[in-house]
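Researcher: I need the complex structure. Ligand is adenosine-5'-diphosphate. Inputs:
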Amino acid sequence: MIEIQHLTKVYGRGAKSVWALRDLSLSIDEGMFGLLGPNGAGKTTLMRILAGIVSPSQGSVRVAGHDASTEKGKTAIKAMLGYLPQELGLYPELTARQFVDYMAILKNMNDEPARRKRVAEVLELVGLAQDADRKLKGFSGGMKRRAGIAHALVNDPRLLIVDEPTSGLDPEERIRFRNLLVDLASDRAVLLSTHIVEDIGQTCREMGVLSHGELLFRGSPNEVIGAAQGKVWTVTTTNGHKPNHGMTVVSMLHLSDGTQYRLVGPQPGEFPEAQPAQPGLEDAYVWLMKSKEEGARVKDEG
Ligand SMILES: Nc1ncnc2c1ncn2[C@@H]1O[C@H](COP(=O)(O)OP(=O)(O)O)[C@@H](O)[C@H]1O
Ligand SMILES: [Mg+2]
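Model: Output:
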C-alpha cells in the first residue's frame, strides 16, 4: 500500500537545518500499522509527506502504486487518502453534521443527496449519530477526535492516516477510539502515530519505532519485544542503593521493606542479585531508545 524509499526531510538551511527524517525506508500493507516514537521523532513530518502537504528533501513515496512526487500521483493519492492531523482545527460554532458536510464539500462531493447520506453514515460509523446536531464546542476530547475521523472518512479512503489521535484523551475515550480504528482497519490501511506504547501493542499487527528521523525497528509488537529479551531485570533494594550505572529505571515501587525497581540494560551490573524479567512492549521501546542513544554516544566518542 505504501512504499517509502530513502526518505529524507531537512527543514531549513545551513547551521539551522533540522533533519526530521533520515534515509527512511519502510513498506506498509493493509490493516493497522503503528508508528511509535517520542516527540520530535519525525512522525508528523512523515505523515505530512504522505498526505502531500510537505515535500521530501530526498527519496520517494508511492501509495498504491502512485508516485507522490508527480502532480498526477498526488491527485490520485489525495482521492484515496483520509488524514486526521495532530492539530485539527475544528469550527466550534458548527455542529458535527455541519462540520463533516463542510469538509465533504471541500472534497468536491457535489451531489447533495449523496453527500448528506454519506455524512450521516460516517457520523453513525464513529458513534456520533446521537450528537450529530450538537455544536462541536460542547464536545469532549474523544468526541472531537471522532468528529475528526468522520471528516477523514467522508471520501471512504483506502488509506487512513491518523497523527497522535489518542493524546489528551481519558482512558475510556482512548480505548473506544482505538477500537474504532481497529474496526476501520478491517477493510483499509490505517497508519497510526503515537508516543503512547499501549496504543500500539493492543491494536497493531505491524509497527515501526522511529527516533530522530530513523527507523529503529520494524516488525510485529512481539518481534519488538523479542529484541529486549535478556535486557529487563527486577531487583528490590533494602539499603537505599539507587541504580545509576547504565540501567534505565522503567518503574519503581516503594515497599515496606525496600524499593522494587524494574530496570532495562544489557547486564544487571551493580545488582548481581537482580532477576531477569519477561519484557513487555514498553520495556522493549525503552531498550531500543537506549541502545540507539548509546550507539550515538559511541560514534561521537570514536
Ligand atoms: N516546519 C518545521 N520547521 C522546522 N523544523 C520542523 C518543522 N516541523 C518539524 N520540525 C522539526 O522536525 C523534527 C521532527 O518533528 P515532527 O515531525 O513534528 O516529529 P513528531 O511528530 O514525531 O513529534 C523536530 O525536531 C521538529 O522540531
Ligand atoms: Mg507529531
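Model: Summary of the prediction. The chain has a mean pLDDT of 91.
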